[in-house]
Task: structure prediction
Amino acid sequence: MTAQTAPAEPAAASAGDTVPWKHLDIRVVWVNATVFLLSLGSGLLGLYLFPSGDVWPLLVACGFGVLTTALDLQRWLTTRYRITEERVEKRTGWLFLEYRGVPRERIRSIDTSARIRHRIAQLRVVHIEAGESGLKSTFSLNALRKEMAAQLRRELIPDQHPEPAEQETVIARFRWYWIFYTMFQFWAFFAAAMFLHASYWFLRSFDIDLIEIVENAAASAGLGTGLSVLVGVAAVFVLGFFGLAFEFVAKFWNFELVRTVDQSGALLTRQGLFTTQSVYREDRRIRGIHIYEPLLLRWMRLAETTLVTTGIHAMRKETANILPRCPVGEARRVAKYVLPGDVEPLEAPLLRHPRSALRQRLMRATYVPAAVAGIMLWLGATGVWADWIWQIPLLFLPFTWTLGVIAYYTLGHTLAGDYLVVRSGATGQATVALQTRAVAGWKLQQTIFQRVARRMTVGIPTAAGHRYYRAPDAGLDQALAFINGATPWLAAEFIEKASPPPSPEKPDHPTEGEIGGKNAAH
Result:
């Protein structure tokens, strides 16, 4: 629940007793109260226009509005924060007290966001990302005045001053044709289905039957049953496509990825139509980049681009993502400007893994459906179900074999200057370029089949991104050369005849993450 327990607060407070505690802005309470009054007015208007309808949706909306306003008032009354020379501190709660303190040197990024009601009241929500383990490493101050939020960000990351336009270099901007890549997805059907389901029950509360309206429209148009079904499915997909497009525009409207060119440098993303968001990431914490290409979207050459940086877990996509889902060519172009140095690691050719890795994947793709078919054959023989059902899993063999081939041809790794690059994945191709100084150790694994075929899986612990990356089924000589070339100071400890001279560039300090350098080597 907290970063530190309540008994630790006096010790932390004693170091900054002279710094006063501050309130959140009271305007957030009035803003939510105004939203409640507007929702109440619209509900009363709907009840007046449809007097015969059920009143439970109005009661639920009113109750939710009252509860939200009361919680915002309680949060404002009980929340205090302060910034000392050493820490950012926040305490909140009434019946259950909560204290949170984060050392300022562990702050990795500052994220500010604002919904429409915040923007109208000139308020911002400040999210402070700390270099802590797990996904709950962020705490928020909701809400501060716009000027106070900007001042707080400059105070916590003093070298960043991205407001003047002449101090920024734009790397990528919003492209309208990206909307079409988001629209054409299978998930559009589910998005439309959920919208229609909610609309049906909402209209039912006013004695309006959506199904009856659709049936009457189909009958008046003279459509048969089959054609009505086809038109309905097409309409659902079109509705879902436009729904996904609207969501994409609302989230990434006016998107910009820029680099500040001040003393320290930082990557900054701005985006949002109804809810604006700005995320700052320091250059000195960047360790690489991660490009993921989902299998179902690879035919459109789309990719998701994530920054590999210390202190920010890659699962926190709102902070780690630096681009919307866009063409992989655009992602690779942006990587040239994001990664420091003159080397372009993503353009380097990758080493192909041994052919025995392909045979292993094809065997795995065969015995899994075969094992399921064998179990179903036995159950059919005992009379549990029909004796022909066991053949169904065998129909999936062409699909599993195809996935096995794809999984093999995505395998690859290489060294490119100060970067190591690994690629793998069957259902989604993941390519990671990681600075060698970010490697905290190595984990080498061999199954009995890999030992016979002289292959091994190389694991790469690090204090950045997903914290662990893999190069599966590399050849034994390939793996040892990869380790020795990337980190000779670590390879010398467990690889015979490794190069003894240490690298002039040391790996990240252990405080950058939870994985220590020598302790993580296996």
